């Protein structure tokens, strides 16, 4: 098999032109005339010939009209030619984007870097995502619609994993497979409690959930899960009492533990044989245990095992890696991260530029939420939806009841508060 480096673009383009002799190959070819360097006119000729006569031109017709075509390329496998052509197109686009910021680097290197990052990300999205033909599987989509309707009629009338937000659940769509949900706040605001509540809400409704903690050991996470899950199930426990060993109603605690028996909840705070938790190890856990919902508390502490890359490259690879994991396994993944010191006001939701590499995180995420405290109100939290890809929300902010010691966490959509 020939390698990409040894095959000239002229030879590969000729192979593609000769290979575009049937509808299947034409549909599989996702590029346009502008992506060709040498034989764009020949590609346009094929399309026009098919439109005019309903058939593809023969190789003799192509050679007569375009004598520069390399006839020796006709033996090349069409699928192979497409892959090499794809690499050629990607290489040229990367080079063009790098060259486009060359002058800007001298005057404003920071802006040049940002511009280059965005343009390279756009290239990555185009070349990493598989595209399916719209009219393929039409009847399957009807079956999918009927299945969604069936799910709406069952239980809480919700498609997907239930969320911590009443207003979202009432829309009939929870966290769906492939969703990447990002949540960020200043330290001490309650990111971990929010992650615990998200996991407990899913588990209480029977969804197998994986909760990964990069900041707290399993024992500490379990205590928080106890009070939150117990509250959802109608039991009243105190996190402070459990943590400090104060006297409690042990019979009630026993009843709760026996009733919960949460085999559907998996908690992880380390990976055997590793110094930390990496994207690769999380991917392995997801594929091994097949959870229906994944929650990662402290995503900024996850490594991608490539210290040679710059920090922004590592973060970019991490966020888009998580999005790809969510998509490829059809699993919603929720992650939390911290705002930087720039978000000094704890009573105002942090912006994307106040989160380390927040722009890349929000670009990769389907849902992005910022959380902050309410001034002079200790038992409330404000949540602001800065991105919600699944539809239009009636309000982009909401208030959460925040009595974490008893696990009493829930949305208060009708709570009146003074806008910041």
Tell me the Rg in angstroms: 27 Å
Number of DSSP-assigned strands: 9
CATH hierarchy class name of the largest domain: Alpha Beta
Task: Give the CATH superfamily of the largest domain.
Answer: P-loop containing nucleotide triphosphate hydrolases
Task: Give, in order, the helices and strands.
Answer: HHHHHHHHHEHEHHHEHEHEHEEEE
Strand order of the largest sheet: 3-2-4-5-1-6-7-8-9
Q: Give the amount of beta strand, in percent.
A: 5-15%
Number of DSSP helices? 16
Task: Write down the CATH topology of the largest domain.
Answer: Rossmann fold
> How far apart are the termini?
64 Å
Biggest sheet features:
9 strands, mixed
Helical residue percent band: 40-55%
> Which whole number gives the mean pLDDT?
84
The chain-level structural class is: alpha/beta
Uncertain runs are 1-5, 129-134
How many domains, in number, for the residues? Answer: 2
Second CATH tier, the architecture of the largest domain: 3-Layer(aba) Sandwich
Shape: elongated
